[in-house]
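ingest -> validate -> predict -> emit
validate: passed (alphabet ok, no gaps, 159 aa)
predict: started
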Amino acid sequence: MKAQYLQRMLIWLGLAMTLAAPWVSATDYYVTTNGTGSGTSWTDTHSNLIEMVALARDNDTVYVTNNATYWLTNQITVSYAITVRSWGSGGILDPTNTILSGRYPTATNRHFTLNNFGATLAGFTLTKGCENSGGSIYLQNGLVTNCIIVSNGRVELQN
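emit:
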């Protein structure tokens, strides 16, 4: 009887550790317009949002500081269950002051493609995104919340 109890406890413990493992290993990344570091803390920020999103894996978060415009040179594809969010004073989402610009008409790129059910984009103004199949976001799977999507377009392809 004691052996059965111990066996059950070990099974439950193993199950609990397996379920908790993804959250234990989550990494936070930090982006500012003038960052020159690795992006692993607010004191060591990186300036390239595209690179930080490319590093992120399931359950990671990419924080983007507010009061800035980030000029995107390419589309950002989010294929993992990550969160990309703005960071305002006190940690609140700040879509009014955290702007992602696709630079149209100088460039023709969409801001984001989200194709993972666990992907979240939160707290940005998305503007001047332009692509032949649509403007700012291509949402295959995921969540876009608390964003302002304005002045985006679609490019007509000419033969």
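The chain has a mean pLDDT of 85.
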